[in-house]
Amino acid sequence: MPQRPYIVGNWKMHGTRAMLSEARAIDRAAQRHMKVEVAIAPPYTLIHPVHREAEQIAVGAQDCHHEEGGAHTGDISATMVADAGAKFVILGHSERRQNHGESDALIKQKTNAALAAGLRIILCCGESEKTREAGKAVNFVKKQLKASLPDFGDDTDLISEKLTVAYEPIWAIGTGKTATVDDIAEMHAEIRTLLVSLYGEEQGGEVRILYGGSVKPENASEILGTPEVGGALVGGASLTADSFMGIALAAGDAEEG
Ligand code: PEP
Description:
Blueprint: E1 6-10, H1 20-31, E2 37-41, H2 44-53, E3 58-61, H3 78-83, E4 88-91, H4 94-99, H5 104-116, E5 120-125, H6 129-133, H7 137-148, H8 159-162, E6 163-167, H9 181-204, E7 208-212, H10 217-224, E8 231-234, H11 241-256
Parallel strand pairs: 1-2, 1-8, 2-3, 3-4, 4-5, 5-6, 6-7, 7-8
Helix pairs in contact: 1-11, 5-7, 7-9, 10-11
This protein binds phosphoenolpyruvate (PEP).
């Protein structure tokens, strides 16, 4: 059975406890829109407080370390975020790749660590403007994704629940620019083909593929109505309940339409 549209807020390095009221408002609104699965990934410091208050939405982390514990000052493991109440973790976000030099190989280690800790994964991929202009976006994204996916081994039963892919063209993140519907459709179809070839129709055909990059209430209907778009990963517009739930509403409408 197809999964519900998935709308995930990435709060990035925004939010102190004063933002808990916004999380509460998102949670309350999500209870009225059950056709859509709504989740937020606040900074580490708010995972537990949001988890304690949320009745409907899942809370997740924006990253985790690839090891379970040890001498890694300032780092946080998958087990720790799960212990704080996280149900999922975003991995391979372009801001991690760029600002922290994260390679595909490291992200693969992180996705494996997340699986071992029982977390669901939102694995990000996306090309730079230069790569797109050179006509190499599709090959680049497929290679990046393939190299960062976890090893599911023989445990293939629940891949479509454990894994979500987020296609986020780097040049569209936080810039107000969005990819064209045709480009989104092409990339999502290519990612779907890859997932089916790796995991078969039953699981690979059901993994949700989110789009991310300047999604807002005004453009959400068009983006979420695009074939193979199973939801959105939302940065800036997830910081207020009004704009974030505007996107969730559009997701519910796209599902019906
Ligand atoms: C993101 O950071 O994942 C993102 C998509 O950000 P924005 O919506 O602000 O472009």
